[in-house]
Amino acid sequence: MKKVLIATEKPFAKAAVEGIKKILSDAGIEAVLLEKYTDANELLQKVSDVEGLIVRSDKVTREVVEAAKNLKIVVRAGAGYDNLDLAACTEHKVTAMNTPGQNSNAVAELAIALMVYMARNTFAPGTGSELKGKTLGIHAYGNVGRLVALLGKGFGMQVYAFDPFVSKEKIEQDGVKVCQTIAQLYSTCQYVSLHIPATEQTKKSINADLLKQMPQGGTLINTARKEVIDEDSVLALLQERTDLRYAADVAPACHAAAKEKLGTRYFATEKKMGAETAEANINAGLAAAQQVVNFLQKGDKTFQVNK
Ligand code: 3PG
Fold it and tell me: Counting atoms of ligand 1 from 1, which one is nearest the CA of 80?
């Protein structure tokens, strides 16, 4: 009997785990569960005899791929796959996939929630402000970025987007204005919501030079990846420009210093919360299980990311 390991340091909701197990067992596949592990060695041991692996942000390193002698497929139940060593997967003939769009709504709702939270001074007593009428910049117009744009419009915001990989027509048909450059997006928008992936090109690309172009009271919302922020330069700028604010889903390394120095102008979740809804877990988890079955039974490679 083929085995698939569901390795989630941050577990899926119970209903999602049950759904994943059902899809696998209906296909005659044994599901093995490894949740809340604290030692990467546990993952190394558990992958040793499985054909498939389903993860969230769990790190699938070269060591993991090499320890998984029978591994044919790994699916990241989620959007960003910067936690998978794609070169190692390709070398060892392991197909790597993600489940694009499945958890996007949860992340988009959190981005808007963070905007409201920052606009209300993290709910500290006193007068805050509203999102209505403010300019919102979407930095990368993928599945999450587009949903944030639509929600922002619902709040009465004026929405702009920068994404060189998405056509002007596609953005404009949502009633969103296109910015030709990143600088134009940051200098126009009071709120910027980040949705770029963490790649060699984007890591540390959001820096003080960019943020200092934001208008008075500008707020950066990061529900993407902490690696895209040049933390030292951003923290220094936020101390200089006392009107700017920063909210992030997952605390940067400088969390303690930022909290102390920036007060209500800064907020970060301690663990990544964007996709932490039952709905997102069910959507992404079940999609991942179905993709594993389709691949193992029919060789279906839809959503492969290591081509
Ligand atoms: C993603 O890339 O899909 C999100 O960051 C969610 O990550 P998570 O599954 O670790 O919550």
Answer: 2
Global pTM reads 0.96
pLDDT at 258 over 90: yes
Which tens digit of pLDDT belongs to each residue from 36-50? 999 999 999 999 999
Q: How far apart are CA 252 and CA 226, in angstroms?
A: 6
Instruction: For residues 101 and 87, give the distance between their C-alpha atoms in angstroms, rounded to a whole number.
Output: 24
Tell how far CA 175 is from the center of its chain.
24
Q: How far apart are CA 168 and CA 173, in angstroms?
A: 9
Starting at the earlier edge strand, list the strands of the sheet with 95-98.
30-35, 3-8, 52-55, 73-76, 95-98
Rounded CA-CA distance 20/170 in Å is: 34
With 90 as the cut, is the pLDDT of residue 307 above it? no
- Residue 40 alpha carbon to ligand 1 centre in Å: 19
- Give residues (CB < 6 A) around ligand 1: 10, 56-57, 78-80, 103, 272, 274-275
As a whole number of angstroms, the distance between CA 70 and CA 268 comes to: 39
